[in-house]
């Protein structure tokens, strides 16, 4: 998608690995994102008149930068993010005038909406009582708990025994051998692990505990559309993207719709940790 010249976002993110992920999310959303070093951020904000400034609060001089940005342009929205354990950074940034400060996991989960809608994305109505709450799951204990409690899993991209060494065969077989019911989803495979497969998630007749995904990262937006189209009684509790699979913008859409989402983790590893004996 071509970036929109009408909406520009300035980002101060010295961690280039993370900055690249933020830039990719912005590009996918059609937002013009400029990465700038902390020492030039206030100057660039004055020159480019961005709609939003994102600040990694672990950057050198970040709190002073927030103060300078708000002093020169009080109406300019400034959003900071920080590690969960560095709570003093949150307090200091808010005191300096930041409009919002998010733990990094929440920042990632809300990034696509934040880029597109600014502060409005952070002030959406609370879910109604009983509504599912989405989240990006990163806590090790929560990841292990998902694997431990999983009784049924739909495996998107499952392979059959013609490719016995493929992770998309080995890992579902591990699940089945430990007593988890596996629902294969692959239009190119008629059956796997002794059961017929489905051509797409639209063919689900139940809500599996987990949807485990073996697809390329560039296929995740289309998969997200399938998940968002599912009726409530067929929606899985968790969408789990296997190791090496990540799409922050699509994950943010799923989280906003109430899904719990895991990215770039091997469900097989966590399943082994539970040492099932079913």
Explain this structure.
This protein folds into two domains: 4-122, Response regulator (Rossmann fold); 135-274, NAD(P)-binding Rossmann-like Domain (Rossmann fold), CATH 3.40.50.720. The longest helix has 14 residues, at 16-29. The protein has 278 residues and is an alpha/beta fold. The strands form three sheets. It has a six-stranded parallel sheet with strand order 6-13-12-11-7-8, sandwiched between helices. The protein has helices at residues 16-29, 38-48, 62-72, 87-95, 104-117, 140-149, 167-177, 220-229, 248-256, 267-274, and strands spanning 4-12, 31-35, 52-56, 78-82, 100-103, 135-136, 152-156, 181-185, 191-192, 195-196, 210-213, 238-241, 260-262. It is built from ten helices and 13 strands.
Features:
six-stranded parallel sheet; Rossmann fold; five-stranded parallel sheet; 278 residues; elongated; 13 strands
Report the C-alpha radius of gyration, rounded. Answer: 21 Å
Q: What is the CATH C level class of the largest domain, in words? A: Alpha Beta
> Main sheet: which strands, in order across?
6-13-12-11-7-8
- Indicate the low-confidence ranges by residue numbers: 1-6
Q: How many strand segments?
A: 13
Largest sheet: 6 strands, parallel
Q: Quaternary status of these chains?
A: single chain
CATH 2nd-level architecture of the largest domain: 3-Layer(aba) Sandwich
What is the fourth-level CATH superfamily of the largest domain?
Answer: NAD(P)-binding Rossmann-like Domain
Approximate strand percentage: 15-25%
User: What integer is the average pLDDT?
Assistant: 88
- Topology as H/E string? EHEHEHEHEHEHEHEEEEHEHEH
């Amino acid at each position: 998608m071509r970036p929109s010249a009408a909406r520009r976002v300035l980002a101060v993110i010295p961690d280039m690995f993370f900055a690249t992920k933020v830039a990719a999310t912005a590009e996918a959303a059609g937002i013009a994102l400029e990465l700038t070093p902390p020492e030039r951020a206030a100057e660039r904000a004055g020159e480019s008149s961005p709609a939003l400034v994102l600040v990694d609060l672990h950057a050198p001089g970040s709190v002073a930068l927030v103060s300078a940005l708000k002093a020169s342009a009080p109406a300019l929205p400034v959003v900071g993010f920080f590690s969960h354990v560095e709570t003093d950074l949150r307090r200091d940034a808010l005191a300096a005038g930041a409009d919002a400060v998010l733990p990094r996991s929440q920042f990632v989960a809300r990034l696509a909406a934040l880029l597109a809608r600014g502060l409005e994305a952070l002030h959406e109505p609370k879910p109604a009582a009983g509504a599912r709450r989405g989240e990006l799951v990163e806590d090790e204990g929560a990841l292990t708990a998902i694997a431990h409690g999983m009784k049924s899993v739909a495996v998107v991209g499952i392979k059959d025994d013609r490719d016995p060494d493929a992770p998309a065969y080995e890992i579902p077989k591990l699940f089945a051998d430990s007593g988890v019911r596996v629902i294969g989803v692959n239009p190119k495979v008629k059956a796997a692990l002794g059961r017929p497969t489905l051509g797409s998630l639209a063919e689900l007749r139940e809500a599996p505990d987990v949807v485990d995904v073996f697809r390329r990262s560039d296929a995740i937006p289309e998969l997200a559309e399938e998940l968002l189209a599912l009726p409530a009684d067929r929606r899985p509790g968790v969408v789990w993207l296997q190791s090496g699979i990540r799409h922050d913008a699509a994950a943010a859409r799923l989280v906003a719709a109430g899904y719990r989402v895991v990215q770039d983790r091997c469900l097989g590893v966590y399943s082994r940790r539970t040492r099932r004996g079913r």
